[in-house]
């Protein structure tokens, strides 16, 4: 409220000053004529040469003041509010001096013997004072003092004149003065109201801009504001950097504890970031994505600042009864030359993409090679679109066998795709791109149908393992889609195994758990893929509705030489036994690995040692050969 009042007071001073710069030149011209007439009058009455000599300098002085104010009005000024306020006060004091001057003139006419000259002078003074008062209406106390001092003195002179006409005229004069005073007051009121509404409009405009430029949740600048500042920085032409920081582990918090808790985490993360020194402008540019604009910073300085901000974000949180940790990854891009600003955030995003693909907590500085990667990804995405339309995806199947008997238990379906220009693209490259491009369902639908049809050619006891991606798992109705495709192909759900990764589950715990539970309810088996590469603890594993765990190749690789890896695999196998989960070792390439696995109690295996991924027809041959072998050994 106080702030609003002071804003208004300041705006009023500015407008009063502006109005004054426009009216004061006219006031001085008025005075200039008045002074000339008065000097002439004094000369006439007293024959004093002084009056004649005084005229030109007085005229020059007033003309100079008129000129000064007119120039000020035309050219504008950069006076502070305080200076404008002081000048307004000076004008008011000058007006008081004017009052005294006018009063003296009015009273001097008293001594005149000639009533004609006396009244002419009086009328001239009063007309001049009214003109000045009207001009000065935006400074009411100055205008009113001039008006009333002259009116009172003139009325006094008229009353003393003993001339009945002048005495009657004095009554009229008072009425005129009241009317002018009223006019002045009304004009000033209108002026005040105008200033008031202009201040209100300006305030609303600023509030609207603020609203459009800030993020409502964290109070940080938003993307629009960030981009505006970025352009302003680029216009200065000195090196600066943009760091885009993305929170890791925020989504599971949001999913598990709800948006109110998620919002509190974001607010807290934003608060911590704000506390970081040197971090420059911090903006929230996406759900859990923040950007720093760091002036005068090259890539390495920006990275170290980003690291310190990330360290703050990564400290433990204890909010609304939830204790958790957040991580962060960061991409940095440096502005070097005009034009860079248009792609800086995009480049920082490319670097961020790379950082996320590396390690948690990584900071990557943009390099041209990343742009090539991004271009390659864009080419792949475009190719995927065409491939979906042309149904150009193929499948290979890799068997999973019982280690003790060598009996095939299932085949894992693995996607294959060849890009017209780029050649064979591995699935762990094109699947994430299909996810990002919103094509994953289109890609997987066809694959699942093909896989299910192939599985229908296998014996009853052989199951189909199929990889489900994170986005796909999180989609509403994903389970229903899968089940209806299986039904269309005639594959019973009990012969279907969904392979899901822990990172996929963690990216959206609530939705993925819903999909998994719905699948399980229909009899589908669920396997946790790549176990050991994620961050889940054994206890978290117990919470998930699983049937099977696939031990990642990285452990299997070291199982023979590395005692630690062997004991980890041993522990996983034991835990699976206790949780009643079956256990599959992935990526078995050597016979000794298979022996170790058997010793550790692992029941099933998959890998190049057993078979490389094969075509549909090859699966049938493989099954025929194996069933013969199994029969023989039995
Ligand atoms: P994954 O699910 O872990 O699949 C196993 C990968 O390991 C396959 O690679 C397979 O060819 C390879 N592999 C199997 N045995 C060995 C071995 O003894 N040595 C070595 N070095 N590698 C072995 P691939 O086919 O390139 O698939 C890579 C990943 O792409 C898969 O990892 C899976 O996560 C994903 N993927 C494949 N097909 C699909 C699909 O249809 N949908 C989804 N969502 N993901 C898929
Ligand atoms: Ca898999
Ligand atoms: Ca795997």
Description:
With 634 residues, this protein is an alpha/beta fold. The protein contains 23 helices and 16 strands. It has helices at residues 2-46, 49-75, 81-108, 115-135, 140-160, 164-213, 223-236, 250-257, 259-275, 299-314, 344-358, 368-390, 427-436, 440-455, 470-474, 478-489, 502-507, 509-521, 538-543, 553-558, 563-578, 591-600, 616-633, and strands spanning 240-248, 281-284, 289-295, 317-319, 322-324, 327-335, 363-365, 394-402, 408-419, 423-425, 463-467, 496-501, 525-531, 548-551, 582-585, 604-605. The protein has an eight-stranded mixed beta barrel with strand order 8-9-11-12-13-14-15-16, surrounded by five helices. Strand 2 and strand 3 (289-295) form a beta hairpin. Helix 16 runs parallel beside helix 18 (509-521). The termini are far apart. The mean pLDDT is 91. The chain binds ligand C2E and calcium ion (2 copies). Ligand C2E binds at residues 398, 413-415, 426-428, 431, 444, 447, 467-469, 499, 529-530, 586-589, 606-608, 613.
Describe the secondary structure blueprint for this structure.
Elements: H1 2-46, H2 49-75, H3 81-108, H4 115-135, H5 140-160, H6 164-213, H7 223-236, E1 240-248, H8 250-257, H9 259-275, E2 281-284, E3 289-295, H10 299-314, E4 317-319, E5 322-324, E6 327-335, H11 344-358, E7 363-365, H12 368-390, E8 394-402, E9 408-419, E10 423-425, H13 427-436, H14 440-455, E11 463-467, H15 470-474, H16 478-489, E12 496-501, H17 502-507, H18 509-521, E13 525-531, H19 538-543, E14 548-551, H20 553-558, H21 563-578, E15 582-585, H22 591-600, E16 604-605, H23 616-633
Parallel strand pairs: 6-7, 9-11, 11-12, 12-13, 13-14, 14-15, 15-16
Antiparallel strand pairs: 1-3, 1-6, 2-3, 4-5, 8-9, 8-16, 9-10
The structure holds ligand C2E and calcium ion (2 copies).
């Amino acid at each position: 409220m106080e702030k609003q009042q002071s804003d208004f007071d300041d705006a009023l001073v500015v407008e009063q000053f502006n109005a004054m710069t426009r009216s004061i030149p006219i006031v001085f011209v008025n005075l200039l004529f008045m002074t000339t007439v008065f000097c002439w009058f004094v000369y006439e009455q007293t024959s004093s040469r002084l009056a004649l000599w005084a005229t030109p300098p007085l005229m020059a002085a007033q003309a100079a003041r008129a000129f000064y104010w007119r120039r000020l009005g035309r050219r504008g000024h950069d006076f502070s509010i305080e200076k404008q306020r002081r000048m307004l006060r000076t004008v008011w004091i000058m007006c008081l001096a004017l009052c005294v001057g006018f009063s003296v003139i009015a009273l001097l006419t008293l001594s005149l013997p000639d009533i004609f000259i006396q009244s002419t002078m009086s009328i001239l003074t009063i007309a001049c004072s009214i003109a000045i008062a009207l001009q000065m209406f935006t400074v009411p106390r100055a205008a009113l003092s001039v008006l009333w001092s002259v009116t009172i003195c003139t009325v006094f002179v008229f009353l003393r004149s003993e001339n009945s006409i002048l005495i009657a005229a004095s009554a009229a004069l008072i009425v005129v003065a009241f009317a002018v005073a009223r006019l002045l007051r009304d004009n000033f009121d209108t002026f005040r109201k105008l200033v008031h509404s202009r201040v209100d409009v300006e305030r609303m405009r600023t509030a609207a801009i603020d609203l459009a430029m800030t993020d409502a949740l964290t109070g940080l600048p938003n993307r629009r504001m960030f981009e505006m500042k970025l352009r302003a920085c680029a216009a200065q032409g000195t090196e600066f950097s943009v760091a885009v920081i993305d929170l890791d582990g925020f989504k599971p918090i949001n999913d598990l504890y709800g948006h109110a808790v998620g919002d509190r985490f974001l607010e807290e993360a934003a608060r911590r970031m704000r506390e970081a020194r040197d971090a420059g402008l911090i903006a929230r540019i996406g759900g859990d994505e923040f950007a720093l604009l760091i002036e005068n910073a090259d890539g390495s300085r920006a990275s170290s600042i980003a690291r310190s901000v990330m360290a703050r974000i990564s400290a433990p949180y204890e909010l609304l009864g939830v204790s958790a940790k957040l991580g962060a990854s960061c991409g940095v891009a440096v502005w070097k030359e005009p034009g860079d600003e248009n792609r800086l955030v995009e480049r920082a995003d490319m670097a961020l993409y790379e950082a996320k693909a590396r390690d948690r907590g990584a900071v990557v500085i943009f390099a041209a090679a990343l742009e090539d990667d991004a271009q390659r990804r864009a080419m792949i995405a475009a190719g995927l679109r065409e491939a979906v339309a042309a149904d150009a995806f193929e499948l290979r199947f890799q068997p999973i066998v019982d280690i003790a008997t060598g009996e095939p238990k299932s085949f894992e379906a693995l996607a294959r795709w060849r890009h017209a220009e780029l050649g064979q693209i591995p699935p762990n490259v094109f699947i994430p791109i299909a996810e990002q491009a919103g094509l994953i369902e289109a890609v997987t639908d066809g694959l699942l149908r093909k896989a299910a049809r192939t599985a229908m050619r296998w014996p009853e006891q052989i199951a189909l393992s199929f990889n489900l991606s994170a986005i796909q798992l999180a989609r509403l109705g994903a389970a229903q889609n899968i089940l209806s495709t299986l039904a269309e192909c005639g594959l019973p759900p009990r012969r279907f195994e969904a392979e899901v990764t822990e990172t996929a589950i963690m990216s959206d715990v609530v939705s993925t758990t819903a999909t998994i539970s719905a699948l399980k309810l229909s009899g589908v088996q669920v396997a946790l893929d790549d176990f050991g590469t994620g961050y889940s603890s054994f206890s978290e594993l117990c919470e998930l509705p699983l049937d099977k765990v696939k031990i990642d190749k990285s452990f299997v690789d070291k199982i023979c030489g590395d005692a630690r890896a062997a004991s980890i695999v041993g522990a996983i196998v034991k835990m699976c036994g206790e949780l009643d989960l079956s256990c599959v070792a992935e990526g078995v390439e050597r016979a000794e690995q298979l022996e170790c696995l058997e010793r550790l109690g692992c029941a099933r295996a998959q890998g190049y040692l057993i078979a490389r991924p094969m075509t549909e027809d090859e699966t049938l041959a493989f099954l025929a050969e194996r069933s013969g072998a199994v029969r023989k050994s039995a």
